[in-house]
TrEMBL record:
Residues 138-166 form a coiled coil. This is Uncharacterized protein. Keywords: Coiled coil. It comes from the Eukaryota.
């Protein structure tokens, strides 16, 4: 029963499919309800007003459109476009784009909804193959765009999830010995509110002793030792507290792939700023 009905609608316009029209289950329920009314009317049940209402239903469109927005013809609103364009109707519709009635069919739907005794100003004719082919191609293109966007979103979510999993583990960055070394760098007379040295320093990489016989001789530690930037914003008292509660630092992924990704993101950002691919 539903297949011939859907064929008639798609014959009028290939865009007449869910969600523009009702889902098959909803259409089945509407047909079943209408059939029960027909049986009751044929058996003489109900008053005259109810019978006339049912007969009027038979003369009007079996409307399976999702939204029932009001349509007005240009001729009814004294529109200046009347008779000058392919579509001679207006619709005040705030429906989602995917559920809107095709603009090309507004006049047809208006005629079908207002027809009397089975006759309307417009009827379904033969299929417009060129228009149908164009509609199918556009629908296919929109579906491909939607699938691409969905895949891109899923790929982005998977990348974020992987990075979050990589950063879930933490490790204690500063142990008791490291805290003592940092406090020693700050000096013997340490104020509890004293911060680390945040001034600029030219760091020198000590040469490697290739003749070393043990690990402690590999690098000459007699050179100037500077406090790591990570702790310079902590007071001396906060540094002492790290002995009891060590600082937890995530295990940030640091490998070739992450560096390449960073370079790529910077390149893309530069492209958006300068409207072309450029690194600054």
């Amino acid at each position: 029963m539903i297949v011939p009905l859907l064929h008639q609608w798609t014959k009028a316009n290939a865009l007449f499919k869910p969600p523009v029209i009702n889902q098959c289950r909803t259409i089945e329920l509407k047909l079943t309800k209408l059939w029960h009314k027909a049986v009751e009317t044929s058996l003489g049940k109900g008053n005259l007003a109810r019978k006339n209402e049912f007969l009027h239903t038979l003369d009007t469109l079996f409307d399976i459109l999702t939204y029932k927005c009001s349509i007005q013809l240009c001729s009814e609103s004294n529109c200046s476009h009347s008779g000058k364009r392919e579509n001679n109707s207006h619709i005040d519709c705030g429906c989602p784009r995917e559920k809107k009635i095709p603009v090309l069919e507004l006049e047809f739907i208006k005629a079908q909804r207002t027809k009397a005794e089975g006759q309307g100003s417009m009827q379904i004719g033969s299929i417009d193959y060129s228009e149908t082919k164009k509609q199918i191609a556009n629908a296919k293109k929109r579906e491909q765009i939607r699938e691409r966007e969905q895949k891109k979103k899923m790929k982005s979510e998977e990348a974020i999830q992987r990075e979050e999993e990589l950063c879930q583990d933490v490790y204690h960055f500063f142990d008791t010995e490291a805290v003592e070394v940092i406090l020693k760098i700050r000096g013997t007379l340490i104020d509890n509110d004293q911060l680390g040295d945040c001034s600029f320093h030219s760091r020198k990489v000590p040469p490697i002793n290739v003749n070393a016989t043990k690990l402690s001789e590999l690098v000459d530690l007699s050179l100037e030792v500077l406090e790591p930037p990570l702790t310079t914003s902590l007071t001396s008292q906060e540094m002492r507290n790290l002995k009891e509660t060590p600082m937890q630092v995530p295990k940030w992924p640091s490998h070739t792939q992450s560096v390449e990704r960073c370079v790529k993101m910077v390149t893309e950002a530069a492209g958006h700023v300068y409207s072309h691919e450029r690194r600054e």
